[in-house]
């Protein structure tokens, strides 16, 4: 069984005006996996993410890191955020230094690292996000997609064990999405646990290992991506649609793959399945 690195237990949170955002929410984040938080606007996704690295403190409930309740004092929060990094949806909310290099180096410098170690961290983060050429570029002169990758690089340079991203693909064109997901997959292969919010069921179906569906401030269900997103009742209850690839595979009669392959989870896999059926004469 995969170890749980981060968990939420019974989180309750209200915004001014007694607006309930989280209502007894429970969540489990398995080490080394990609967890997608799915749900309609206003279901509590962003509020939950802000709790998972201590930006918000719950009215009730607790967050656990490696099974231990986290603290909200200065030292405890600093240690927590060194292990759990958060990338906001809007990069302008996270970028504040004059140049890309300065912005990405801010976190490692605050960790007290030596100058040589900071340079190595920044160089590795820029290379991973394919933005080395932007190191001396003013942050205000970047495109939206470039800003997004710089914001991720700034958190990545701190070497968190868990990287949390709020709507990471929002506002990116298809090429930008492909580059970003490739970089994040590289991090996952290196051992980083990824948690990301999205309302894109196709992204969750094709890329996540696990999915948690949120509604009315709670996790309605959580499990492996394929099993969770193949249940139309669960999706309907959360005002979500069936993933496009799964709907097409079902309509074309190729949702059941040979052996234990399961439904296709990429366009290439769907095409291969269809070509195989034509080759078999079925």
Overall mean pLDDT stands at 91
The top level CATH class name of the largest domain: Alpha Beta
Biggest sheet statistics: 6 strands, mixed
Written as H for each helix and E for each strand, in order along the chain, the element string is EEEHEEHEHHHEHEHEEHHHH
The number of helical runs is 11
CATH-defined topology of the largest domain: Rossmann fold
Helix content bin: 25-40%
CATH superfamily of the largest domain: P-loop containing nucleotide triphosphate hydrolases
Task: Note poorly predicted spans.
Answer: none
Shape: globular
Write a structural description.
With 282 residues, this protein is an alpha/beta fold. The chain folds into 2 domains: 237 residues, Rossmann fold (3-Layer(aba) Sandwich), CATH 3.40.50.300; 40 residues, no CATH class. Helix content is 39%, strand content 23%. Strand 4 and strand 5 form a beta hairpin. The radius of gyration is 20 Å and the shape is globular. The two termini are 39 Å apart. The mean pLDDT is 91.
Index terms:
282 residues, alpha/beta, Rossmann fold, four-stranded antiparallel sheet, 10 strands
């Amino acid at each position: 069984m995969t170890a749980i690195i981060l968990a939420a237990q019974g989180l309750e949170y209200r915004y001014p005006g007694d607006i309930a955002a989280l209502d007894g929410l429970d969540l489990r984040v398995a080490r080394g996996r990609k967890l997608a938080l799915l749900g309609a606007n206003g279901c509590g996704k962003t509020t939950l993410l802000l709790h998972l690295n201590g930006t918000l403190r719950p009215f009730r409930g607790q967050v656990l890191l490696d099974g231990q309740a986290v603290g909200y004092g200065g030292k405890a929060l600093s240690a927590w955020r060194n292990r759990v990094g958060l990338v906001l949806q809007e990069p302008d909310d996270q970028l504040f230094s004059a140049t890309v290099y300065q912005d990405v180096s801010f976190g490692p410098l605050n960790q007290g690292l030596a100058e040589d170690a900071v340079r190595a961290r920044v160089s590795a983060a820029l290379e991973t996000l394919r933005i080395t050429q932007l190191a001396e570029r003013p942050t205000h002169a970047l495109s939206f997609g470039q800003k997004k990758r710089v914001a991720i690089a700034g958190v990545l340079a701190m070497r968190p064990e868990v990287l949390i991203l709020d709507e990471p693909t929002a506002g990116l064109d298809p090429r930008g999405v492909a580059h970003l997901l490739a970089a994040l997959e590289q991090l996952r292969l290196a051992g980083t646990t990824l948690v990301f919010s999205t309302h894109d069921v196709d992204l969750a179906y094709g890329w996540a290992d696990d999915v948690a569906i949120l509604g009315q401030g709670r996790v309605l269900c959580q499990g492996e991506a394929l099993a969770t997103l193949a249940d139309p009742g669960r999706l309907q209850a959360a005002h979500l649609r069936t993933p496009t690839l799964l709907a097409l595979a079902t309509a074309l009669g190729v949702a059941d793959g040979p052996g234990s392959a399961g439904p296709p989870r990429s366009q290439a896999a769907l095409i291969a399945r269809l070509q195989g059926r034509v080759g078999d004469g079925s």
